[in-house]
Amino acid sequence: MEGLIQSSDLIQSRLNELRTAQTCDSLTLASIWRTERLSCPSRADWSAFLVGVLPPEIRDYVIFHQQVVGCRLCTANLADLRFAEHLQLESLRRRERFFNSSAGRLGQ
């Protein structure tokens, strides 16, 4: 495949056009905004959102960002935090069950 690309002037020309367009596109305000994730809440903000300690105006924005903007990166980040929270709760429940089953035996 690489040999075909190198031997074709048409493909080389198109490839160069795409590289130039990509370079120029990466300098637009919209692409910088997306690349740098300037409107995305931080992971700390998402964590605070999950535990319900964000100020109302920031809470409203993160809800808007997730539900209206539909940012895939933030949705993944939020899912990851929820999964970590789930694992932590499961670990606490296991520990509590283990303690409760052992505590009854210690009294004997």
Sheet of most strands:
none
Helical content (DSSP H or I, runs of 4+): over 70%
- How many DSSP H or I helices? 6
- Global structural class: mainly alpha
- Tertiary shape: elongated
Order of helices and strands: HHHHHH
Number of strand elements: 0
Approximately what portion of the residues adopt beta-strand conformation? under 5%
Low-confidence stretches: none
Distance between the termini: 75 Å
CA gyration radius, whole angstroms: 25 Å
Mean pLDDT: 82
Number of structural domains: 2
Structure described in brief:
With 108 residues, the protein is mainly α. 82% of the residues lie in helices and 0% in strands. The chain is built from 6 helices and no strands.
Written overview of the protein:
By secondary structure, the protein is an all-alpha fold. It has 2 domains: 1-36; 40-108. Helix content is 82%, strand content 0%. It has helices at 2-7, 9-25, 29-36, 43-51, 56-69, 72-106.
Which helices and strands appear, and what pairs or packs with what?
Layout: H1 2-7, H2 9-25, H3 29-36, H4 43-51, H5 56-69, H6 72-106
Helix pairs in contact: 4-6
Features:
108 residues, mainly alpha, 2 domains, 6 helices, elongated
